[in-house]
Amino acid sequence: MIVERTRAGLDAAKAQGRTGGRPTVMDADKLAVAKARKAKGESVTAIAKALNVSRATLYRALADTE
Fold first, then answer.
1. What is the DSSP string of 3-57?
2. How far apart are CA 60 and CA 41, in angstroms?
3. Residue of 42, 18, 14 whose CA lies nearest to 51
4. What is the pTM for the complete model shown?
């Protein structure tokens, strides 16, 4: 019964255009900047500091696009 009500609530929220979960940090603009700077040979650490994201996030985003 609890599972059914939870599922119904999630489905209703989705129908209204809401989604759950943590918001993404890397949007399309940041990713484009990161790719361009990486292509120029800049270090991942420097790029991550400039974009205010962690190195792990940057590595993950770059790996997802390759």
1. HHHHHHHHHHHHHTT---SPPPS--HHHHHHHHHHHHTT--HHHHHHHHT--HHH
2. 18
3. 42
4. 0.69
Identity of the residue numbered 13:
A
Q: What is the pLDDT along the chain (66 residues), one digit of tens a residue?
A: 899 999 999 999 999 999 888 888 999 999 999 999 999 999 999 999 999 999 999 999 999 887
Q: Match 């759950």 to its residue by tokens.
A: 20
The two tokens of residue 4 are 């059914």
Q: List the structure tokens of 40.
A: 């120029």
DSSP 2: H
The answer to whether the beta carbons of residues 62 and 38 sit under 8 Å apart is: yes
Cα separation, 15 vs 32, in Å, equals 31
